[in-house]
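Action item from last meeting closed. Structure (647 res):
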């Protein structure tokens, strides 16, 4: 049962055209007349019939249309102009500063296997909810209809998607983050045989409606519904809503041949003219944008879709072409190129949930700039020293405040981002927020061990989900977006990275990264990080050399670690820094008891999952037993020189 069709009751392109004739003015009618695919017309018409907008605007992605959208956003008050030309601010309600996981559901039949992390609702009940909340929700509002490709037009991994929303802010964001593809849409849908549909309305955009806000995702009909909310993670479902459908496609339709990941894509320059491409996963709010920008050439900071090409290489595309990035901690030291876009004139930026001062300039936590006395932020009026009802200081910006911009503004944006054939990707990294256990970088000895690194990411929780705190497991940093059983997803990872179609010299290098180790975890007495933000450039450079067999390594039970001499050379060459042996020893000493505890945490948690490949437990057991042997032989704490002496 397809709720959109059931509620909209439009079944044929003729019925759809009749509805357009009664709802659209002559200019919009002329635009929609160019779209011929019957399924696309019927889908749009059903959304109109359900939401009953007072006007419909067809967005062709032209400069003229984009201007109209920008103007509506300002007129409605969804965005306000800032001092810098092209910059605007959008505030979400104070109670909706992240994804509303508790109000997010998959529409699923009782027999469907759905992620154990997610809420679910049967189609009939979901249709009732949609009917109750979305019928007529766009009365007095304009529905903006956008046609997008998630990925370069013509790419085997790209997916067509409709974004139907009454929010000009969401439509404006979609224009910055995705490829508007009005002219190619019919053809792409005909080629692929499917498209995704997203229907959203902010309704009256009131705090009192937030308890009734919902996000629904229908995997069968590849349609999302969102109402009474505005945060882009809940409403711009082209992003994580459609990412979930792309995960389904990889896991259930193209298992072993395709992946859809919560990963950045960045190019690392090596000796000569070489660029080696790297895709890396990190949970939301763990510095993924910063790591992405630490490469030499940038493709994406959030999502990656990959497949195995005819030549035996793994190719990757970014379904997006913009950044919806967390701004907390973004500053000239760590993120000079991003700061240029944010602080120098000439770029279009939508800010959200930061502080705007009386000169209409945006400010945020961790920007290393002077803090203004007062302004307006995510919770309303703000002044220095302001506290909340629990007497806690209110920060100038919310930890999940964001900037939205098109990647073409970035000096290091690669033209390869537009290549439908994707980039040949050799390196895959997995990182979390791990203060006390794993070293800054380690490489899996086999593809299977690499899959297990992804399965075992742990992270302190971050501000991207409303109401979640503490430490949690973050499998592949993708778990919130895996619609089916985690075991099916894991099986797809094993099958992909072991696929015999991947040929030399394209075999993947799969690594763990962790730059959140603290002094305290290594015998010190502060929670300061070991090393600095920019060191990540060195870890990436070392992986780049490793991928080309240009460095040696220490072989340990958790994987291969860098040798001290290679790192000293790279620290000097890449960031002009001395790298003391004492720091190396702190970073790369293995604390066997801690690592074993970490393995046991994973074993305990995974035992309860359905469909789980046995391989995971075998690999974890083998690592554990090797660590126990070492502990027996050498002791709990194993310094790198132990492994150096084995070479
Ligand atoms: C994330 O939280 O991982 C994001 C933003 O990239 S959201 O759209 O909320 O998913
Ligand atoms: Mn993300």
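Sequence:
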């Amino acid at each position: 049962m397809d709720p959109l069709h059931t509620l909209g009751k439009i079944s044929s392109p003729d019925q759809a055209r009749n509805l357009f004739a009664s709802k659209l003015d002559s200019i919009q009618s002329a635009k929609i007349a160019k779209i011929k695919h019957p399924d696309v017309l019927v889908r749009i018409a059903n959304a109109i019939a359900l939401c009953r907008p007072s006007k419909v605007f067809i967005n062709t992605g032209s400069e003229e249309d984009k201007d109209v959208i920008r103007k509506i956003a300002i007129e409605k008050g969804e965005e306000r102009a800032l001092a810098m030309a092209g910059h605007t601010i959008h505030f979400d309600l104070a109670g909706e500063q992240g994804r509303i996981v508790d109000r997010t559901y998959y529409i699923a039949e009782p027999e469907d296997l759905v992620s154990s992390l997610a809420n679910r609702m049967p189609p009939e009940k979901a249709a009732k909810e949609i009917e109750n909340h979305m019928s007529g929700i766009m009365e007095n509002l304009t529905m903006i209809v956008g046609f997008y490709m998630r990925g370069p037009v013509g790419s085997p991994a790209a997916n067509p998607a409709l974004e139907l929303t009454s929010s000009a802010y969401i439509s404006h964001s979609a224009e910055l983050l995705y490829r508007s593809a009005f002219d190619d849409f019919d053809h792409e849908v005909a080629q692929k045989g499917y498209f995704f549909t997203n229907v959203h309305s902010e309704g009256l955009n009131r705090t009192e409606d937030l308890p009734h806000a919902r996000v629904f995702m229908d995997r069968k009909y590849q349609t999302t519904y969102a109402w009474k909310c505005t945060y882009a993670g809940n409403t711009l479902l082209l992003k994580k809503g459609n990412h979930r459908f792309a995960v389904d496609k990889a896991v259930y339709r193209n298992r072993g041949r395709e992946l859809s990941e919560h990963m950045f894509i960045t190019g690392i320059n090596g000796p000569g003219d070489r660029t080696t491409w790297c895709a890396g996963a990190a949970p939301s709010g763990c510095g993924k944008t910063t790591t992405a920008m630490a490469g030499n050439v940038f493709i994406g900071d959030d999502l990656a879709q990959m497949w195995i090409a005819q030549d035996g290489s793994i190719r990757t595309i970014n379904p997006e072409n913009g950044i919806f990035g967390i701004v907390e901690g973004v500053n000239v030291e760590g993120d000079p190129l991003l700061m240029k876009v944010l602080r120098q004139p000439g770029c279009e930026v939508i800010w959200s949930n930061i502080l705007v001062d009386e000169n209409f300039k945006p400010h945020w936590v961790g920007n290393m700039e002077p803090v203004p006395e007062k302004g307006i932020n995510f919770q309303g009026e703000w002044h220095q020293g302001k506290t909340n009802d629990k007497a806690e200081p209110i920060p100038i910006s919310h930890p999940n405040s964001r900037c939205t911009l098109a990647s073409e503004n970035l000096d290091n944006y690669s033209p390869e981002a537009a290549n439908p054939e994707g980039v040949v990707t050799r390196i895959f990294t997995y990182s979390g927020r791990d203060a006390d256990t794993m070293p800054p970088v380690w490489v899996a000895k086999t593809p299977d061990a690499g899959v297990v690194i992804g399965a075992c990411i742990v992270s302190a929780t971050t501000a991207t989900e409303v109401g979640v705190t503490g430490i949690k497991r973050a499998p592949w940093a993708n778990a919130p977006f895996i619609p089916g059983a985690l075991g099916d997803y894991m099986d797809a990872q094993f099958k992909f990275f072991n696929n015999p179609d991947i040929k030399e010299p394209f075999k993947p290098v799969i690594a763990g990264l962790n730059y959140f180790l603290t002094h305290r975890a290594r015998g010190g007495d502060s929670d300061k990080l070991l090393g600095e933000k920019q060191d990540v450039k060195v870890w990436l450079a070392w992986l780049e050399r490793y991928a080309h067999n240009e460095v040696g390594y220490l072989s340990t039970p958790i994987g291969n670690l860098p040798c001290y001499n290679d790192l000293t050379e790279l620290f000097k060459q890449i960031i002009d820094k001395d790298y003391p042996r004492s720091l190396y020893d702190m970073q790369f000493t293995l604390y066997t008891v801690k690592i074993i505890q970490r393995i046991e945490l994973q074993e305990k948690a995974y035992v309860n999952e359905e469909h789980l490949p046995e391989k995971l437990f075998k690999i974890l057991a083998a690592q554990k037993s090797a660590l126990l042997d070492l502990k027996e032989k050498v002791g709990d704490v194993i310094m790198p020189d132990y492994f150096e002496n084995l070479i």
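Note appended to the action item: The pocket of manganese (II) ion (ligand 2) is lined by residues 262, 284, 302 (CB under 6 Å).
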